Amino acid sequence: MESLKIFDNFKFSELNEDWIQSVWDGEFIIYNEPPDEYLIFLESEDMKLLLNESCIVVKAWLQGCASQSEAENYDSEISWNTLITKDIKVRALLAILGYIIKNGQSKEVDEETRQLCLYATSLYFVLLAIPGSSAFNVFHPNLYQQAIDTLKISVERLQLPVKKRNKSINLDDLNITDELNETIILLPNEKEALIQNLNTIVCGLIVMIKSFWFKDHVQSLDITIHGLIEVTKIEDDYMISQYFNKQIGTLNVSLPQNAYAALKELCNNKHGPVEITITFIAKYVFPHLIYNSMDAHVKIIANIREHTINFLKDLLNEYEEEAKTAILTLIQRMMLSCPDRLETRQKQANVLLKLFEICNQNIALEVFKDLMLLSYHSKIAFRLFAQEIIGKLLLESFLMNCNIMDTLKIKVKRALFAIVLNRCMDCSSMVRGKAMAIIAEFTEFDSGKDKEIFLTIFKDSDVNKQFFTFHDIKDSLFEDINLLPGSNILITMLKDRI
């Protein structure tokens, strides 16, 4: 408990009450400059060390009390009530942290001020981990959002693209003006230091999430998830495929790995319905999965997608019912985000197939029904994209490896093949051409089961059986229906296409 006297070193006596009150009256949005004497202290190395040491002290206090075997002792020792009795000036402390965080997020400040911002953010998250942070108004929505913004701004610095020097000519006075957009290109050692500082912040956020309740702070939950999703885009050589192990929440684990762990910690009913939390997650990982949405190296983007899909798979395995709606909605959004270019459509279809692979049978069947609907969409682009996806499902080994029963696999394949046959009569030449190409490849396939599907057309006694309508096809996954047309009808249709 003696260690908590470190907060006396913040020299709150040098702050006048009017300045502190102005920060609180401004709802942590408007900050006036603190008194000159205190501003000198803020800019000194002592403040940086004090913020870091205070964070270490509070973490040690939390861990020390948590390790005690008697829960009653834990509850009585660790709380904001204990800190208040120690005469710690909470309002002054939060005002100072808010000022440091806000000031350090400006693009014009130097590196030392940015470092202070990172340390202040880390300390604020750890302070929120102390029970009673809501009751004693330590949690403030605006201050919390500024702390989360530190994560987002830091991610932007790590991913900042190199901008070219722009030169423009003013035709009015023929003066050449040189417009140089300031860009901060981090050196390798600076990038490594920033990643480590961010990892420290996320570790503190994990400590906070374990004790803080977001149930009554839905907007703050939303921005927390958004901030953590942004962190998962950071390239880290230490990133491994296994996200969760006993070292989670420590600096021994990579930054993206800790960010994923924090997201999983949020999937707890004390933070609100898990279904809502996973819906927020799905909303913010969507840009990770569609093409032309991230400005990064191809290999980095591929790694981000792989880790994102693995994380979604973990959520589905652990929260099957709660995650179902979010995953379905995510896949639907991706289907409706069909790229214009052929190469991009093919790549997008590959990502969708990887998402299909993590789905269990119930979700997979819903996905296939949505794919059937997309095949009959009023817009040509959607029908063409649907054929791209169906082609990969039919011509690759996905259906044989997906998580549905063997009998259903055959039904799905027949239904998809029937849709392709129907699309050969599409009003769009592009859709017809894609459908015909799929049939050509499908009939040349070496798979005996695939050939059997096609040969049933010529074995059917009713050679004049017409093509089934969409309404018949969409219900075929749950009924035993032969969707394929008679041989005479098929041959007539193919002759018309030539």
Q: Would you mind describing this structure in some detail?
A:
The chain is mainly α and 498 residues long. Among the domains are: 1-139, no CATH class; 376-498, no CATH class. It is built from 23 helices and two strands. Strands 1-2 form a two-stranded antiparallel sheet. Helix 6 runs parallel beside helix 8. The longest helix is centred in the middle third of the chain and has 24 residues, at 188-211. The chain is elongated. Mean pLDDT is 85; it is low at 69-76, 162-169, 171-181 and 238-245. This is Condensin-2 complex subunit D3. One of its GO terms (molecular function) is histone binding. One of its GO terms (cellular component) is condensed chromosome, centromeric region.
Which sequence of strands runs across the widest sheet?
A: 1-2
Helix coverage percent of residues?
55-70%
Our count of helices gives: 23
- The mean pLDDT is 85
Query: Beta-strand percentage?
Result: under 5%
Could you say which structural class the secondary elements and strand pairing correspond to? mainly alpha
Low-confidence stretches: 69-76, 162-169, 171-181, 238-245
Query: Compute the gyration radius: what is it?
Result: 29 Å
Layout of helices and strands, plus pairs?
Elements: H1 17-25, H2 36-42, H3 45-66, H4 71-77, H5 80-85, H6 90-104, H7 111-128, H8 141-158, E1 166-170, E2 175-179, H9 188-211, H10 218-231, H11 255-265, H12 274-289, H13 298-318, H14 320-335, H15 342-357, H16 361-375, H17 380-395, H18 398-401, H19 406-423, H20 429-443, H21 448-459, H22 470-474, H23 487-497
Antiparallel strand pairs: 1-2
Helix pairs in contact: 1-6, 3-7, 6-7, 6-8, 7-8, 7-9, 8-10, 9-11, 10-11, 10-12, 12-13, 12-14, 13-14, 14-16, 15-17, 16-17, 16-19, 17-19, 17-20, 19-20
